[in-house]
Amino acid sequence: MTGQRLAIFEAVFKESTHFTAEELLDKSRAIDRTVSRATVYRTLPILVESNLVREVDIGINMKYYMPNSEEDAPKAQVICNDCQKIFEISAPFMEWYGNTVSSNLGLTPISQRLQVTAQCEELRKSGVCSKS
Predict the structure, then answer these.
(1) Distance between CA atoms of 54 and 123, rounded to whole angstroms?
(2) Residue 103 half-sphere exposure, CB side, CA atoms within 13 Å?
(3) Three-state SS for 57?
(4) End-to-end CA distance of the chain
(5) Could you tell me the residue range of the domain that residue 108 belongs to?
(6) Which terminus of the chain, N or C, has less C-beta within 10 A?
(7) Is 93 a domain residue?
(8) How many domains does the chain have?
(9) What are the pLDDT digits (tens) for 61-81?
(10) 5 and 44 both lie in a single domain
């Protein structure tokens, strides 16, 4: 464990909202100015594989990340198509649904996600979004 990786871990687990790799780089460098872009990009897949961080792909050639916590209930993501903000809502039905459809095929679920893309009516009407 290097000092750079410790700074990355610290920056990740201070977060309570979604972040990009570049945002993580900036936050990590605020902790340890020697953190390199390459180390951030090499560390993120390790954090995702170890289930410490969730990767969120909203289909815009950029991935977002968020720390995982054990007590997290299944979440659905609602993505604002106008400002790209990601909202996470509790979706306890997802576990039941994943288990039900998988078991009907004789399979065991290992992951699932629910993503809804929406538009901001407030932004479209007034030009300003209070949610972003």
Answers:
(1) 28
(2) 6
(3) strand
(4) 36
(5) 73-119
(6) N
(7) yes
(8) 2
(9) 788 898 886 556 677 878 787
(10) yes
